[in-house]
Amino acid sequence: MSVNEKFTAIRKGLLEFLVLKIVSADKVYVADILGQLSGTEFATQEGTLYPLLSKMRREELVDYEWKESEAGPPRKYYQLTDKGREQLRETSEYWQKISGTVKGLGRD
Amino acid sequence: MNKVITINLNGIAYQLEEDGFEALRAYLDAAARRLEGNPDKAEIIADIEQSIGDKFRTMLAASKTVVVTKEVEDVIAEMGPVEDDAGETGGPASAAGRGPAAGAKGAPESSSAPGGTAGAAKRLYKVRDGAMIGGVCNGIAAFLGIDVTIVRIAFVFMAFMWGTGALLYVLMMIIIPSANTPAEKTAATGIPSTAEEFIRRAKAGYYDGMKTFRDKKAYREWKGQFKREMRQHKRDFKRGIEQNVRQWSQGWRQHWGLQPHSHDTWIAGSFLTLLITIVSVVGLCALLSLLLTGSIFTFSLPAGMPLWMAIILLLLIFQILKWPLKAARYSVYYHGTGGPGYCGHGGFFFGTLWWVAILLIVIWVANHHSVRAHEVLDQLRHESHQFVDSVRDWWDKP
């Protein structure tokens, strides 16, 4: 099993955290999110992202508004809600703790 | 040369090669199935359709108006299989297979697998949506792929010509399971309900799509294409009907071999047919009056007789009344023609269903009028319960 495969579940679990981070920076639409993730280890596809975003919207972490685009039909632009910002803060803190733990244990 | 199918994704029309259309439909079916139970299913599907439409648009130009199959497959691969995050049931095992790296590999798999279920195994269910009584006719119509009205007429016909329709209906109502879940409804019709929905929406979108066209030339071209397709549908439909009628009349003649021999037999036959029809109509009225008022033409039922038995008895009586008439008609038609020997109506009369009906009545009468029979039946019921229980115990035991 390659390292890539071993971390599949972890990447999947972290995806929501990363989407929160991306959406927190600016109002974005799905292609923006995919673009920002595409070069990274977390590259993903619409088939995964749309269900995730709809779940996050149901949990009131993100919200969207329709905006006209230059080419084609209007698009959904996503932004964080207050609850989403709170969740992002908590998750970031937790992530700091985890990475601190990983660094602090044993030797490299 | 490939056939082109016009579809509508979120209000904009696209022309796809037929194989590409099938692949896309399979992809969206698979997506809808995986999102089954997700409260935002419709919205997610709409998002995905819009995204696919955006990708198609980048592939088209003034000189290229059709999305070819290869391009559809590429788009599907780029979209990746739809995963329902809300379910969280996939677990690491399925996640490993559907990671980003496996996306391109996963797509053809997801587009071919539902292809197998497009002609999904049909099962006979009662379909209660739009049913008149219990959904039996609906279910049979869906199973055979014919119009429900034909099935209903057939049942009514059977009920009053041979008396078996009503009994058959009640039996089927008891035996056939209902289609309740979407999956069962899918199995009942053989068409994935989501694909049906997709086609319906695509058709509805035809008209919406027309309004959103800005380019006059493309609009005219597309309208022409639409009209051609509709004309083709109409022709196919007409041809199908004509073929059906021809087969029916042929089969009818072969089955009955009713070729009136002479003027006399024709008159006698018609007269007998008229008599049979009158008896049938009276029977129908009697049954209706029984069902509506609980009594047959103001003759109320004997005390303690259940309705089901009255119905069976009524049908039986009219069956007996019609039997000699039918036998007479049959012999008139085959008198001297050397046609197939008389063997028909005895079969109807002593058909299995009538034996079941008579047996039911005998058991009921025995149960109510003989103490000894009542005891035996009670004992039998007790023992059958025990038997069922023992089978269940055996089954449940690991």
Task: Give a quick rundown of the structure.
Chain A is mainly α and 108 residues long. Chain A contains five helices and two strands; from the N terminus they run ααααββα. Classes of the chains: A mainly alpha (108), B mainly alpha (398).
The chain-level mean pLDDT of chain B equals 71
Q: Write the element-wise H/E pattern of chain B from the N-terminal end onward.
A: EEHHEHHHHHHHHHHEEHHHH
The total strand number of chain B stands at 5
Kindly report the average pLDDT value of chain A: 88
Main sheet: strands, sense, barrel of chain A:
2 strands, antiparallel
Q: Radius of gyration of chain A, rounded?
A: 16 Å
As a percent range, the share of strand residues of chain B is under 5%
Question: What gyration radius of chain B follows from the Cα positions, in whole Å?
Answer: 30 Å
Strand order of the largest sheet of chain B: 1-2-3
Low-confidence stretches of chain B: 86-120, 336-350
| Main β-sheet description of chain B | 3 strands, mixed
Cα distance, first to last residue of chain A? Answer: 21 Å
What is the overall silhouette of chain B? flat
Helical amount of chain B: over 70%
Strand content of chain A: 5-15%
Dominant shape of chain A: globular
Quaternary organisation of the protein chains: heterodimer
The helix content of chain A, as a percent range, equals 55-70%
Poorly predicted regions of chain A are none
- The counted number of beta strands of chain A is 2
